[in-house]
Amino acid sequence: MAQKSKEIIYVGTYSQNNSKGIYVLEFDRENLTTTTVQTVHDKQNPTFLALHPNKQFLYAAYREGKDEKDETGTIVSYSIAPDTGKLSKINEVSSAGVSPCHISVDPTGNVVFLSHYQGGNLSTFKILETGGLSEVASFIQHTGKSVHANQTKAHMHSMIPSADGEWVYASDLGIDQILKYKVNLEKGTVDENPVIIKTTPGAGPRHFVFHPSLPFAYSLEELSNTVSIYSLDQTNGDLSPIGRINMLNDKLHSDYNAGADIHFSMDGRWLYASNRGQDNLVVYKVDQATGLLETQGHVPTGGIHPRNFKVDEKGALVFVANMETDNLAIFTLDSDTGMLKATGKNIEIPRPVFIDQLFIE
Fold first, then answer.
1. 37, 8 in Cβ contact below 8 A?
2. 318 near 309, Cβ under 8 Å?
3. What gap in Å lies between CA 73 and CA 60, rounded to an integer?
4. What family does this belong to (predicted)?
5. Relative to the CA of 209, which of 3, 115, 152, 245 has its CA 20 to 30 Å away?
6. Model confidence, pTM
7. Which DSSP helix (H) or strand (E) runs through 30?
C-alpha cells in the first residue's frame, strides 16, 4: 500500500515554561491541528534549526555548551526518519562561539553556517557524508560598534547563502554591516576578507532574504524597524542599496519595537516581516520590475513577541511563533491580496522561537 503523505512541523524553543526542547509535530491541514510525534532535548535552548536541502537531516543550534564549563554553544546533527519525521542524533560539535542564535545550510548541502549574537562571531562546518558535522572549519570574529545603545560591540545575527552557494551574507546587528563572504564548498570554509556593505547607522541588520526569482535582496533592520532593499548583481553577488521602508503601523503606539523575521510568499509577490512590540506582521507588495515595496497593511500576530514565522510551502498558511504567549498562531494567506487572516487556531508550545516544515510523500 502506498504511504499516506504527512506534514511535519519542527519547532525550536527556549528551555523555559516546561518546554521539552525541539518539538516534532504532525500537522492536520484539514483541521489545522497537530499531534506531537516526538520531543528532543539534548541540551538547553535549541532556539534555531535548519533543514538540509535533501530533507534527510536537521541541524539544531543549542545555546548550552558540550559540558557545564563550556561557555560556547553546541550544534547537534540529526537524521530524519523518512516515514515519521522523527529525529535521531548523528553527532554534536562545539559551536565555537557564545550564544548561537541562527543556523543555516548552503543550498548545495555542503556547509553549515552559524551566527553568535553575544560573541559577535561566526563559524562554519563541513557536512560529512553521514549528515553529521565536522569540527569548526572557519571561525571569524567581528569587531566594532555603532550609534545605538545596543551596538556597543559586534552582534552577529544571521548568515544567508546565495542561491548557488558561492557566497554567504552575514548580518551583524552590532556594527551595522552586511558582510559578503566567499564560500569554499569543498572545505566548508569562508574567506576571511569579506566585501562589506555598510547599512544606515543605528539600523541593526538582523535577518536577510533573497527574492525567490528576481535579482533583489531585503534586510530586516531590528533597531530601526525598517527593511532595506538591495539590487543584486548576479555576476558577482554584490549588493547596491535602492530603497528603505518603515515596518511600523503609524496608528499604533508602542514604547518598544524590535523587528524580528522576514519571509516571502511562495510566488514572490508579497513580503512579510514581524515586529515585537506592536506584535504584528507587516505585509508588503513587491514591485516585480523595480523590487521596491509598498505597504499593504499590518496583521496582529495573535500573541506577544513574535519571533520567527513560516510561510507555508503550499502557499496557503502562515505560522507565527509568539514566544511570550507560548503559541504558534495559524493564518490563512490570500494570494490575490497578500493579506493574512487569523484562523483562531493555535498550537500551544512553550517559548517557541523557530518553525520549519517538512512534507513526507
1. yes
2. yes
3. 10
4. Belongs to the cycloisomerase 2 family.
5. 152
6. 0.97
7. none
